[in-house]
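Lecture notes, unit on protein representations.

Consider one protein chain, 693 amino acids long.
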Amino acid sequence: MPLDHDAKPAVEVPGDRAWWRRPFSVFQTNLQEIDAVLDVERTLDFIEEYGADTWLINTGGIASFYPTELPFQTRSPFLADRPSGDRPSGDLIGDAVAAAHRRGIRVLSRLDFSKVSARIASEHPDWLFVSPAGKPQVYNTLFSTCPSADYYQHRSLEILDEIIGRYPVDGFFFNWFGFSERDYSRVYHGVCHCPKCREGFSAFSNGQELPHGPASPTYPEWLRFSSQVIKTLTSKIADHITARRPDAALVLGRGAPIVYHEANNAFGRELWHHNTAEWVSAHVTGMPEIALMVNSVSFVDMPYRMAGEQPEHFAQYLLQAIARGGNPSTYIMGAPGRIPYANLAYSSSITKFHGQHRDLYARLKPAATIALVRPDRLRSASPGFAETVEEFRGLYTALQEKHLPFDVLAADLICKMAEEGALERYALVILPDLGRLGRQTAEALDDFVRSGGNLVLTGSSGVTEDGGIELATSPALMRVGAPKSGDELWSTYVTDREQREIGNYRYAPSIIPVYGSYGRFVWKPGVEKVGRLLPQAPFGPPEKCYGHAASDDPDLVRLTGRGKVVQIPWTIGRTYREFGTTEVRDHVLDAVRPLSGQRLFAELPEQVELILGRDGEHLVVHLINQSGARRKSFGPHLTISGGRLRLTRAGSSSKPELLVSGGAPTMLEANGDLLIELPPLELFEVIRIRADG
């Protein structure tokens, strides 16, 4: 049926244990000190009308919005102005929790332990961040703290105990929960050198020197150390909350019952239009047992918190979140109505749609047969990581534009998925120039291939720094020397055609440019080599631009066993990301498509993103209209007409439903396939198709 803009989502009674295991939607009012006097009933009216069932509200840390008695907390000075009855001062949190629960709305308490006042800092200097130069980090009169130190490690638990003892809140969220190498103005202060960090890093790294920043050789080790500190602390806090209040959740990183992701934009950085879908897919694919909250930011960037995000851009956050299986959250500054965010009226229908179809989203699982592996973010300081991300994004874009449904698989979760048998649902796994995989990951992928799965390797995936081959199922025996890269590859091409007139410098299509890197390998006997490399020849001046001859190095190599492995020894994803030509895109998809096990096909413009899931016996197809994509945002979309889906081996019981526009689409049967004629596509559509197998 069509969207009912007046319907309200049903919610569980607050206090229901593990409520976060079912779909939920959040509205965050990120309060300023002056909001201590906000009207909770009016705020809840707004949240209900928006379609959310959970309120995320500032509670403690930098400023306490309740009358804390702890000496290391700072009450908002405006609490005294709040109507308080017979209380010595106002209590926003007490009022908010009581009013929300009367309406069946949950409350999450927002805490921020990243900074303390000058008074607290002077009393507890051992809690503070210390720069490599020995200085504290001070921003807007507040002193940054260190997660290794006592404030995070112990006093945070006392603050939680005070709140839990007073209010039946339904969960907690910690803001800025990490090491503050940069401040709000993006000024880099370096790695923390407080005594706890010096001691902890020395033990973690077997005595290595604490780095100053990304240029230090031990910085990659610092990233692993800091990640471990946060992960351990997250689990400690989550366990503490569960012991005190089993019906309350923690929203944070890995180790928490609800993992947090923030969907935002920012000036001064390139926009990756698919960032939200990527992160949600990587989480839901690898850790489906853990709920994910996608907090979508209503303003354009932190320094411009009163400048509302483009409504169509904000809608993409919510749509990409729910289509991939995340829980949507909307984030504004202050009390509703104080700052005019135009996106709220536009996006409310998405939140309501999610609430109206809670049963569908409760059962929604990834259903793609292709897994695209995302580089391990803990390697972000390692050489070549940025180039690997570009390879990943180029392949992501190619698959998305031609509607080959895929899931994102985090590299560090491959072993977990293999142990759980979850890799078996994929026909194809794509590794985008990942370099070294590690022994356990390589063994898991070898087992996948031996069980009949297919692999596509690009660049140096599964290759060690010295050219060794990690995968036993790889077509390669070893790499010869370092890959060619940069201007060494300018005017270098591959071709998949027999070039019969190459001696006369006359070429048959297609000629594909090679960008990024190309590695030369010694190949196993009996492999199938496809195409040839046309090594570099002069590219200037025009009078001298000729001379390309074919080498014995291939475009790609196939090795067929129980499963197939295709190795593309160059960075075809980076090439497509850089040049954007259809010829490059279709070249890689020609190699991928026969291995994909794909059953659902689409006749749609490339500006429509297709995301495939399963709801029990139904396939669930989300179509998201991204025709409004701009360099830095999404603008108004174009209506897209004439689309069609084709489901192979559909059977006669298939009954497609259009959940957004309503009704049933026109259907045709052709040679056992189901053809679904789509109505005009506006912002998004969701199609449920009964499909056995």
